[in-house]
Design brief:
Blueprint: H1 7-22, H2 30-36, H3 41-50, H4 55-73, H5 78-84, H6 90-101, H7 105-118
Helix pairs in contact: 1-3, 1-4, 2-3, 5-6
């Protein structure tokens, strides 16, 4: 994911990943992250671009992993998960989930339940 070289750029990217991972339900804004790093927003965007990524891509990656894990556990509804992740409605979340993982949340949940029934000791 991260390119080699570019020390300050890589540190900036790792900071963004760490902070977004700490709070996937309410990730800090790009401006907040830039402020924490004592950079302008444009400079942080350039740092991310030099590492071949964007804030939105990193945020999507963290939120997609969170959503997939919550659906595997089966403790939440799609509507509840959409609200938790800050989507305006479940439909928007479903479209994002489809883009992230290539299938609808309901299909993903069914597929992971089928796998877990085949391998009862694994989750």
């Amino acid at each position: 994911m991260l390119r080699t070289g570019g020390g300050i750029e890589r540190k900036s990217v790792w900071h963004v990943i760490r902070r977004v991972t700490e709070s996937p339900l309410a990730p800090p804004s790009l401006a907040e992250l830039a402020n924490e790093l004592r950079l302008s927003t444009r400079t942080l965007i350039r740092h991310l671009r030099k590492q071949a990524t964007t804030y939105q891509e990193l945020k999507d990656q963290v939120q997609s992993q969170y959503a997939a894990s919550m659906l595997r556990l089966g403790n939440t509804t799609v509507e509840g998960l959409a609200a938790d992740l800050g989507f305006h409605d479940a439909s928007s979340f479903r479209r994002s989930f489809q883009r992230w993982l290539g299938c609808a949340p309901s299909k993903y949940r069914r597929a992971t339940r089928a796998v877990s029934k085949q391998n009862p000791g694994r989750r």
